[in-house]
Each structure stands twice: as C-alpha cells, then as structure tokens.
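Re: that backbone. Tokens:
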C-alpha cells in the first residue's frame, strides 16, 4: 500500500498557563485511499494532532511527511501553497461565503491555485457539485441552502483541487442524523471509488465504526489503531 502521510515522533507542548505536553511522540502512517477516523475524549489531543497533520500548526517536534515531501521546517508561504494543492478541508461549520453561489464557493481554492483558467475551474466545480448531487443548486446563494446542502458544497470545495488528503474536523458535528449519514456515504464513496484519503476527527461513534480504520487517542498518545474490516457498498 502506498503511504500518503507519515509522522515520526510528533511531540507538542502548550505553555499557557504552564508547560503541558499535549502530544507525545506520535507515529502514524496513513495509506492512500484510506478512510481513517481519529477518536478520543475531549482534551486527548486529537484536534491538536489534526492541526499539525494539516500543516496549520508548525510549533512541534518530530517530522511530518505528506506525499513523499518532508514538510517540517518549511516556511508559512511554502506550507500555504502545499495545503492548497494537496490538502482539502471539511469542518464542522461549512464556512461558505453567504453572498456567493454554491459554484462560486467551490471555485475559490482552484482559482487560488491558478492551475486552470476560469472556465476550466468553473467546469471542475460543476463536476464536483454533480458528484455530490448538488448540480441543480449550483447557482443558488449558499445562505439559501439547507445545512446538509451547505456541507455538501463545502465538501465539493474541499475536493476541487483533487487533494491527496481530505482533513475533516467533526464534519458531521453540526448535522442531524439523516445528513450525517449522507456526509458519511459521500466520504466512503470518495475513498472507495475515487481513492481519496480522508482523516477525520469525530465524536460520532457510528461514523468512526464504519470508516476503514479507527485511531484512538488518550492523554496525547495513540492507544489503539484498528481496522473496522466492514464491507462498505458503494453509493447507488
């Protein structure tokens, strides 16, 4: 299996109000096309680890490598460019621009990447919306969409640049059970059909149980890593 992410002894401290070790020599390897859930009680360090893995937090010891590139020690500008090309984000809250249409929101990361011309970006954005069943809402302003629809637009935005990894921070945390299942099914389809890699921090037990692998953290350490080994049929 091809590894898309690897860490070596990631260690991090908080210093306010006093020195506290929040991550303790984290070694983690994630394969391409894997759907991984990162779980643990509040305060265990999973969200902190997510921010390190996403390159948003650079104040740590150890090494981080994504897609064969060592990212530890790179400048903020280098990391920003890397993130836009290689990492997609889906948060608990969608963070869409309310006055923009769905397709305009999806286009933003690709326009920033500047790899394609405007028409190509627009076509790519429409295809991503179509993949998520949102093509009929492409021209609708995002503040006129339901919560579940907004999250699907946010997922389309996260995959517009075909990133190596999608990082999810409680991606179903603000959704009802129906839309939570819908988002999970989308993630499963992205990994099992399109070979996207997903790392998601979640408190949702069902979400975690049905992903490919569950990595549990406690007191700043990984205490277990287990494959769920469940058959996961593709979306119809």
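Recovered sequence:
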């Amino acid at each position: 299996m091809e590894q898309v992410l690897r860490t070596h002894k990631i260690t991090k401290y908080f210093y306010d109000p006093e020195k506290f070790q929040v991550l303790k020599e984290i070694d983690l390897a994630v394969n391409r096309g894997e759907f991984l859930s990162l779980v643990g009680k509040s305060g265990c360090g999973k969200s902190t680890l997510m921010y390190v893995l996403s390159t948003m937090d650079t104040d740590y010891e150890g090494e981080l490598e994504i897609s064969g590139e060592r990212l530890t020690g790179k400048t903020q500008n280098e990391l920003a460019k890397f993130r836009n090309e290689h990492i997609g984000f889906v948060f608990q809250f969608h963070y869409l621009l309310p006055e923009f249409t769905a397709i305009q929101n999806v286009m933003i990361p690709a326009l920033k990447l500047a790899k394609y011309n405007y028409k190509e970006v627009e076509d790519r954005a429409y295809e991503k919306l179509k993949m998520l069943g949102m093509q009929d809402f492409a021209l609708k302003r995002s503040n006129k969409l339901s919560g579940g629809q907004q999250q699907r637009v946010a997922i389309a935005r996260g995959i517009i640049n075909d990133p190596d990894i999608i990082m999810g921070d409680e991606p179903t945390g603000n959704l009802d059970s129906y839309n939570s299942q819908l988002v999970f099914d989308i993630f499963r389809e992205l990994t099992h059909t399109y070979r996207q890699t997903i790392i998601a921090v979640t408190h949702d037990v069902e979400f975690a149980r049905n992903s490919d692998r569950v990595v549990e953290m406690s007191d700043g350490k990984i205490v277990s890593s287990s494959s769920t080994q469940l058959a996961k049929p593709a979306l119809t």
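Residues 32 and 88 are 14 Å apart (CA to CA). The domain at 3-227 is CATH 3.40.50.300 (Rossmann fold).
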